[in-house]
Prior knowledge:
CATH superfamily of the largest domain: ABC-type transport auxiliary lipoprotein component
Number of strands: 13
CATH topology of the largest domain: Rossmann fold
Low-confidence stretches: none
Helix content: 10-25%
Order of helices and strands: HEEEEEEHEEEHEHHEEEH
Distance between the termini: 107 Å
Largest sheet: 7 strands, mixed
Structural class: alpha+beta
Shape: elongated
CATH architecture of the largest domain: 3-Layer(aba) Sandwich
Amino acid sequence: MKKLILSLLISLFSITLWAQAPEKVDVILKVNGDEMKGKITKINDVDLTFIYSGETLEYTIKKSDILKIVHASGRVEVINQPTLPSESRKNDRVVMNGSPADHHNKIAILPFHFLIDHQAGAEEVGYKAQQDTYAFLSQHSAGYTILNPMTTNALLIKAGVTKDKMMGFTMDEICNILGVEYVIDGTITQNKGVQTSSTSDNANTTIKKKDDKNVVGVKSSEYAYANSAQRYDVAVNLNIYTDTNASIYSQNHKAFFSSTDASYSAPLEYLLKRCPLYRK
């Protein structure tokens, strides 16, 4: 009798667990990132019919909108391969300004990349470094024509070469878009260095006496100063490419001393004076 009761309890427990087990469903992952869970009832070469879990209404979904299907059985069926960045860029409009022969001795300066503590920093710093490079080379590049930064940036935007898509273009393509023979690309890195602190104090006491026994007045003062400053390590990386996609200069220089103003001017000027486009 005890064995029979025990068997019945085990059976009831098993049934309860089975009833509580989550129902396996079909999962559709769409190209736009949406996820649909339910049951696929029909499927053909063009579309499929789908019912959401807990509902009865049928939906028709085009296969062209589906990335993949994870069936209730666990089988994964890929409907459309994800588009790679290089493939999506094929539809971008690329504008070539002039023929390669017109590029001769023309220079364009791209907005600099700015990294602060290994994270993307303010874009304004990159545009400021672009302008500073233009101002410096304009005085030391006899025989070259340097594209104004505003013109450079406008042409890049019109051609779809925004910062988020920059990695999808080769340097010879960028040269063709800008109509130049040389492109200057730079990166500024700024990392926190040591934090310095200093303290100083001053004490002064003056006692005036009327005679040896009576004190007329006492003047006492004490001062204490504390000062701390965050110092930064700044470095500049400079690269120059040609319209044949060749790299003709790639150097990095770090500021000799840590600075509280995090200036990149000294290492930038150091690299520009040693690049092949510099003229005294």
